[in-house]
Amino acid sequence: MAPPPDDPAGAGHPASDGTQPFRKPRLEAAIGWLAACGFLFLAMVIVVVGVQSRERAITGAQDRARAAVRVLAEHAARLFDAADLLVEYAAQESAGRPWDEVARSRALWDKLNAQRARLPFLDAVWLNDATGLLRLTTAAFPTPYSDASDREAFLFHLRNAQQGRPVDQPHIGPRIIGRVTNKATFLLSRRLSEPDGGFRGIASVTIDPSYLSGFYKELDLPHEPVTILVRADDLDVLVREPDGSAEPARLSDLTRRSILAQQGGGVARDDTAIVAHRRVDSWPVHVVVQLELAPVLETWRRLIAPYAGLAAAAAMALAALSVFGFRQAGGARQVQRELERRVRERTASLEKTVGERDAALAQKDLLMREANHRIKNSLQVVSSLLSLQGQAVGEPRLNDHLLEAGRRVQAIADIHRLLYRVDDVHFIPFHDYLTELCRELERSARSDGGNWRLELVVEPVEVPTDHAVQLGLLANELVMNAIKHAYRPLAVPMAATGDPSWAEPDTHKATNVIFVGLRRSGDVLQLIVGDRGIGLPTDFDWRRNRSLGMRLIHTLSKQLGATLTVENTSPGVRFTIGLPQPTSGDGDSDGVRTSG
């Protein structure tokens, strides 16, 4: 007899041998369990993808804030360096003059005002005597009455003088309202000293916060961040953008804790904000970029919304599949094929997304190269203009200054020329740059007269882009210093030194030889420039020399954290720049890589 319809395949009836047969699961139950597992899996995927994408959005915002403060810190360092040079220039021009003469000197006022006009972020130059009385300012002539004896900057330098601290210490004051200009500003100042070391007064410049606010406003940063410039010692806010109030708002507790915990710079976040900060090189100020977390999460929600809709659609499809599966088992196979088709479409979509991302990265690299190419062209134009201006000026000394400035600008342009040629923009082959620079200086020197020869012994070394400009300018200054001064007033015959390797057997004219070396010694990169010329006077102190070239060498060495050694080699002199750098072979931008 056939089994009843409700018990297909004889399920539930004992077999002929008395054992219970295997019960097949009902198809509906199997589909129900699969549907439940599918819904559970979909919920887990939504949660995992949502959490991970949210964290990626926050991490991306942190990375962009960190990159922004790095750029802003470099901009602030260049700005303060330029302002400090003007302060030193004002101190030099007023040194040795009685204060009454300084106050009456229209010529000195014109010189300082001309220099100030070249720096649009500065309001004025100020010279105050030892009592705090204002003696000269580019804000007005004749000088209006003003007493700065109660200002922090004046008291800071007076206190340092009374305690016998070194003179070479610039100071950045708090944000104030100028008594003469009646504008919000802050001071960068230096102490003035009498010949006997006594306190003579201060020289200072006022920096316009609105200039910095305008610069911060023009930056294309996402999520409308708050950009802040703050003093490092007391966390006093100097500039805040955006901030419509006359007195900038104080730092948030999160920002204060982050700066105090990470003096060099870092990133912190809480439930409401992301804060990235970085200390400006060699200056007691921090740049802060503060992002509210709400706009970041709102952007994330907009990006995740299509995926949530896709998940909802998938859930509906799964429900429809379950209902249909209950009705007809054959429909399950059709749905399976449909799901496979959707997987293929999603895979193709993901592959397209990856391809678009790779194309965007390639476009970014192309834009970086184009930017460096345009910077190089602009700097070459500036160098050419300086050279042409030098040729048009009848004053030989001014002509020399303009030509030297043009060479310095060209040295920087050559760095950017290498940057758009190399594959890795984080490093440049400094040996190639140094060789080309020396050959150009040699050709220039020979064209001006004289039998010059530059002997190069350079190792293949790649240096970080952040160090390349300073090293290039140091090499340019040292070689030009040797060309200008090593063999004056008369070149020393090389054969007279007793070293036949320096002699020129084929001519009676002495050869002016300059040696340039580049090598690694342990963890130190050494740049060496030497000659066999007249040498330096026994009482020469390069640290106190006030020539622009030596000041540039001293300043650039300090910026790099390098050591400068000057040795009389009898005959001649040798300059050695020692830059401590750990060897890096994995693309770390803080290290030097050895090529080849």
What does this structure look like?
The chain crosses the membrane at residues 30-51, 307-326. By secondary structure, this protein is α+β, with helices and mostly antiparallel strands. The protein has 3 domains: 26-327, Beta-Lactamase, CATH 3.30.450; 350-421; 428-594, Heat Shock Protein 90, CATH 3.30.565.10. The protein has 12 helices and 19 strands. The strands form 4 sheets. Strands 1, 2, 3, 4, 5 and 6 form a 6-stranded antiparallel beta sheet that branches. Strands 8-7-11-10-9 form a 5-stranded antiparallel beta sheet, sandwiched between helices. Strand 15 and strand 16 form a beta hairpin. Helix 7 (293-327) packs antiparallel against helix 8, helix 8 runs antiparallel to helix 9 and helix 9 (396-419) packs antiparallel against helix 11 (465-485).
Main attributes of the structure:
single chain; 19 strands; alpha+beta; Heat Shock Protein 90; Beta-Lactamase; 5-stranded antiparallel beta sheet; 6-stranded antiparallel beta sheet; 3 domains; 19% strand; disordered N terminus; 596 residues
Summarize the structure.
This protein is α+β, with helices and mostly antiparallel strands and 596 residues long. 49% of the residues lie in helices and 19% in strands. The radius of gyration is 35 Å and the shape is globular.
Layout of secondary structure:
Blueprint: H1 27-94, H2 99-104, H3 106-117, E1 122-129, E2 134-137, H4 152-162, E3 171-172, E4 176-177, E5 184-193, E6 199-207, H5 209-218, E7 226-231, E8 237-241, H6 253-261, E9 265-269, E10 273-279, E11 285-292, H7 293-327, H8 329-392, H9 396-419, E12 427-429, H10 430-447, E13 452-458, E14 461-464, H11 465-485, E15 512-521, E16 524-531, H12 548-560, E17 563-568, E18 573-580, E19 593-594
Parallel strand pairs: 13-15
Antiparallel strand pairs: 1-2, 1-6, 3-5, 4-5, 5-6, 7-8, 7-11, 9-10, 10-11, 12-14, 14-19, 15-16, 16-18, 17-18
Helix pairs in contact: 1-3, 1-7, 7-8, 8-9, 9-11, 10-11, 11-12
Catalytic activity: ATP + protein L-histidine = ADP + protein N-phospho-L-histidine
EC number: 2.7.13.3
Organism: Azospirillum endophyticum
